[in-house]
Amino acid sequence: MEYFLSLGFTFWLLFLTFASGIIYLIDYLFFQKNRLASYREQLKALNKKQKRQFYKDHGLKAPFIADQARSLFSVFFVVFILRTFLVGNFLIPTASMTPTLPVGDFIFVDKTAYGIRAPFTNKILVNTGYPKRGDIVVFHFPVNPNVDYVKRVVGLPGDIISYKNKTLTINGKQLDYTDCDRSVMNYNNKSLSDNSGDIVCLEHLGDVTHEIDWIKSVKSQDFESLKVPEGHYFVMGDNRDNSQDSRYWGFVPEQDLVGKAKLVWMSWDKVDKKIRWNEIGKVF
């Protein structure tokens, strides 16, 4: 069972598309002609009124399986194209991106933002752009490509990154942090049970200004003068002291990018068992 689950949603969607398409094609090529001929023979012996009743009772429908396959093929094919090449859905599973993306947010991912890619191989078919500093990106985890992560792009190819005393320096310029507010409560005025930070600041990252969390009691994971290789990106979570990111497992190769986070379409608070209406519609 674990093996079949590991094949992923895209594989099974493609399998269902092919299976329904093949069933419909077999019926069309080998059975539909004979079925129509049989109908014509039966209609020859009927008068006009009987023909109307025949159409009402039988019509020209294919057998149940073939009829369902024809209907489902269209649905599976459209969903496969949308899901594989255009837009994806991602559920925020951890607190690593709070306060921007709390646990339980469902986001739409623009899969065309960084290139239209082939399924399974993720090879770029059409180049449409590159990540910008501050983008929230979804990518295949380099250590385990079967798992997708969401983080914020901090370093671009060629950048030199340093992180000291919980402060980022990019290409020799230290980032500005403003409006820092120390609190023992998180963004939703609840206790820190979800590992959100106890200090919230605005980080000015290039053209993007966004909130980050710090946990005062956690030691800073410092490093100096780390150069981002060509074709790679340095990513971090907005919850800086509760995020497994490039500081721990390295850079994200361009080939592992899935897309750019665009919109929160649903948000579910699993603690209070309710919808967070204030999160829905948030655009990035």
From TrEMBL:
Keywords: Hydrolase, Membrane, Protease, Transmembrane, Transmembrane helix. One of its GO terms (biological process) is signal peptide processing. It catalyses: Cleavage of hydrophobic, N-terminal signal or leader sequences from secreted and periplasmic proteins. InterPro entries: LexA/Signal_pep-like_sf, Pept_S26A_signal_pept_1, Pept_S26A_signal_pept_1_CS, Pept_S26A_signal_pept_1_Lys-AS, Peptidase_S26. The keyword Transmembrane helix applies. It is found in: Membrane. The chain crosses the membrane at residues 12-31, 71-92. It is a multi-pass membrane protein. It holds the Pfam family Peptidase_S26. Its main location: membrane. Residues 68-266 form the Peptidase S26 domain. The keyword Protease applies. GO terms for molecular function: serine-type endopeptidase activity; signal peptidase activity. The active site is at residues 96, 151. SUPFAM superfamilies: LexA/Signal peptidase. GO terms for cellular component: membrane. It comes from the Bacteria. Its EC number is 3.4.21.89. PANTHER family: CHLOROPLAST PROCESSING PEPTIDASE, SIGNAL PEPTIDASE I. NCBIfam families: sigpep_I_bact (TIGR02227). Belongs to the peptidase S26 family. This is Signal peptidase I. It comes from Allofrancisella frigidaquae. The gene is lepB.
